[in-house]
Amino acid sequence: MDSLENLITNFISYREDGQRVALVTLIGNTGSSPRPLGTQMVVSEDGRSVGYLTGGCAESVIVSEAVAAIGAGHNRQIRLGVGSPYIDIQLPCGAGIDLYIDVGLCDEKVQQIESSLQSRSPVALDTSMTTGKHQVVLDSAQALATGVFRRWYLPRRRLLIMGKGPNTTALASLGTASDYEVEVFSPDRNTLEACSREGITTGVLKNLQSPDFPPVDTGTAAVLLFHEHDWEPSILKTLLTSECFYIGALGSQKTHEQRIVQLQSLGLGQVSGRIHGPVGMEIQAKTPIEIAISILAEITLTYRSTCSGQLIPDSILSFSSATTGGIPALKV
Questions:
Q1: Among 75, 63, 37, 70, which residue's Cα sits nearest to residue 330?
Q2: Per residue in 18-59, pLDDT tens?
Q3: What is the pTM for the complete model shown?
Q4: Is 57 within 8 Å of 23 (Cβ atoms)?
Q5: Beta bridge partners of 135
């Protein structure tokens, strides 16, 4: 499943079809815009598109403008809503949005972005609104030039699930549908086969003392869904010394208290507070899918409130200090 927060893969796919492509970025707004600054669409010259910027009320106009820009071979900036020449298009709450349609992004720069994301490293694209030139940025401390906006791309959020049974398969399915990169590790063949049938990456847990699962990073959430908790100590020992932004473990409050005592005996008492246990938000969940909803809601809240802001210094989109007073006019 493609991420609406990162459409680079779609850009590459259109290019592989032999299409010229426009990258459309929401760079400014007045009022309450339907989508946050930095949101993007990808449009091919034959009129196909991925992503949305207004929630459906103006996408056809955006696609038409993008196709026209591709045909003309020039970038363009348009405004929709308040202050727009498209007087028949009204956005919610009297909003107005500014869009930058970029038809000059080369394959080399796109592949550089994709390569960084594949290695799970944040990467940014600097775009000059006066010259149309681009620069790929890996260092968040690198200064912005005048008249340039910077759009950050973050590695896809990853959900690492270790457990077995219907709670595991339900969370794996919901995580995949919610745009997480999901991997399931289990000692149970039925659980692994059920996840594999849905195209989810799986791995076998074989050794209680040294379970084998991939390294985790700051964009990873890890959830343990065992009813028998023998697997937990060795797994949690690894996770609690990692950078993953979320750790959750299934069980009652009493089970969690026993879990903490066991971790203290392993010298992990100081970091055991990182564990969300009992896992998930309190919604009185009863069924596996309801339990999965509660867990994914808690993971997403944690990510939005703590993690995404740590991966990059500011917002997903930023302008140089010389242009923060207003979006510069486009010169072509």
A1: 75
A2: 999 999 999 998 877 778 889 999 999 999 999 998 877 788
A3: 0.83
A4: no
A5: 126
Distance CA 261, CA 257 (A): 6
The count of other CB atoms within 10 Å of the CB of residue 185 is: 26
Q: Are residues 303 and 317 in the same domain?
A: no
> In this structure, is residue 231 part of a structural domain?
yes
End-to-end CA distance of the chain: 36
pLDDT digits (tens, 9 = 90+) for 64-93: 999 999 999 999 999 887 666 766 566 666
Q: Which of 237, 250, 251 is nearest to 161 (CA)?
A: 250
> How many distinct helices (H) and strands (E) make up the chain?
9, 15
Based on the domain organization, do 70 and 125 belong to the same domain?
Answer: yes
Task: State how far the Cα of 179 lies from the Cα of 284, in Å rounded to an integer.
Answer: 25
- Amino acid, res. 329: A
Q: Are residues 34 and 61 in the same domain?
A: yes
Of the candidates 320, 244, 304, which has an alpha carbon nearest to the alpha carbon of residue 276?
Answer: 244
Token pair for 243? 């950078």
**Residue 299 domain-assigned (yes or no):** yes
Is residue 1 in a domain? no
The CATH number of whichever domain residue 212 belongs to comes to 3.40.50.720
Please indicate, yes or no, whether residues 292 and 198 belong to a single structural domain of this protein: yes
Cα separation, 149 vs 127, whole angstroms = 6
Work out how many domains the chain is built from and give that number.
2
